[in-house]
């Protein structure tokens, strides 16, 4: 007997009777033609910051990579297991996406963990600790700022980590070459869960600003 939590089965029923019904032609076309999304989103695993919901995206529109803290590690072709780099490689080299958006969000638990270095690992493997140590230098700098409140430090590191990931994206030769040719553009965004506000990074200044919506 198939076994899945009831709320997932209920959601799937709604999907088949709703969205799939109205978009079945699109799904069939995507199955036939393959996917060709123009945009890759690097987002956090956080259940409150789903890119498809925030950008109202249909099937085939967004190639989404989610990991803890929406981090992109630096380019390291060392034969280890690099899931984020694998997704990036596929998006850029095979799908030939035109945009990559690194989207952080408010109240990020991963970022909070990076700031709170005194807390015990969640398991002996301390996978989160190791992963978030990517931004340890930035976290130490932000933590040292005694004039900031805890909330301000959290928001600051959430936004710094987006700039950090964008800088790491450019350490991948395929990304920097295509960006140099004008065939790929990189973007930063930060989503405020409590208000629904999306702040977009200004390419020239690195500041996060509210876009003017029509
Ligand atoms: Zn998060």
From TrEMBL:
Cofactor binding, note field: Binds 1 zinc ion per subunit.
Cofactor(s) this protein requires: Zn(2+)
EC number: 4.2.1.1
Tagged with keyword Ribonucleoprotein: no
Reaction catalyzed: hydrogencarbonate + H(+) = CO2 + H2O
Positions that bind Zn(2+): 44, 46, 105, 108
GO molecular function per UniProt: carbonate dehydratase activity; zinc ion binding
SUPFAM superfamilies: beta-carbonic anhydrase, cab (SSF53056)
Entries under Pfam families matching the protein: Pro_CA (PF00484)
UniProt-listed GO biological process terms: carbon utilization
Keywords assigned by UniProt, alphabetized: Lyase, Metal-binding, Zinc
Protein family: Belongs to the beta-class carbonic anhydrase family.
PANTHER family from the UniProt entry: CARBONIC ANHYDRASE
Function: Reversible hydration of carbon dioxide.
Protein name (database record): Carbonic anhydrase
